[in-house]
């Protein structure tokens, strides 16, 4: 709760938004904003989402959460995209197993074309 209260105040003041203005934009009272910033109360998830929307940040950022590690960020996303673009090959059944698979697949196709 301490991280949320600190981040809320930091984000609000950095944007030059008063408690009154934030309260009005988020559908809360000034007292509610004060209670959140002074750690007397915690917002509901719905209220936190409204505050995040008004401040134009994610809920994680509002809560003071960061999951970045040295390999993350844009370079990490590029690496992830590259690894996903070449999916691993799936071994195809061979021999008797392949024949059984073809029969099952053909049977399904035939039943799909001629419903009961």
Describe the structure.
α2 packs across α3 (30-37). The chain has helices at residues 2-14, 19-26, 30-37, 45-55, 59-62, 74-85, 95-113. It is elongated and about 75 Å long. The chain is built from 7 helices and no strands. It has a domain at 2-62: 434 Repressor (Amino-terminal Domain) (Orthogonal Bundle), CATH 1.10.260. The model has no long low-confidence stretch (mean pLDDT 79). The termini are far apart. The protein is mostly helical and 116 residues long.
Q: Which keywords apply here?
A:
mainly alpha, 434 Repressor (Amino-terminal Domain), 65% helix, 116 residues
Which helices and strands occur, and which strands form pairs?
Layout: H1 2-14, H2 19-26, H3 30-37, H4 45-55, H5 59-62, H6 74-85, H7 95-113
Helix pairs in contact: 2-3
Which percent band covers the strand fraction? Answer: under 5%
CATH superfamily of the domain at 2-62: lambda repressor-like DNA-binding domains
Number of strands: 0
Query: CATH fold name of the domain at 2-62, please?
Result: 434 Repressor (Amino-terminal Domain)
Give the SSE order as H and E letters: HHHHHHH
Percentage of residues in helical conformation: 55-70%
Ends: how far apart? 60 Å
Second-tier CATH architecture of the domain at 2-62? Orthogonal Bundle
The CATH first-level class of the domain at 2-62 comes to Mainly Alpha
Please, what is the average pLDDT? 79
Low-confidence stretches: none
The rough form would be described as: elongated
Give a nutshell description of this structure.
This protein is mainly alpha-helical and 116 residues long. 65% of the residues lie in helices and 0% in strands.
């Amino acid at each position: 709760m301490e991280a949320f209260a600190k981040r809320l105040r930091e984000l609000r003041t950095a944007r030059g938004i008063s408690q009154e203005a934030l309260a009005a934009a988020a559908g809360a009272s000034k007292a509610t904003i004060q209670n959140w910033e002074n750690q007397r109360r915690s917002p509901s998830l719905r209220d936190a989402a409204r505050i995040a929307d008004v401040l134009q940040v994610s809920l994680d950022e509002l809560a003071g959460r960061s999951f970045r590690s040295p390999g993350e960020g844009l370079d990490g996303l590029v690496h992830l995209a590259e690894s996903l673009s070449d999916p691993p090959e799936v071994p195809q059944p061979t021999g008797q197993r392949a024949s059984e698979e073809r029969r099952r697949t053909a049977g399904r196709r035939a039943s799909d074309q001629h419903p009961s």
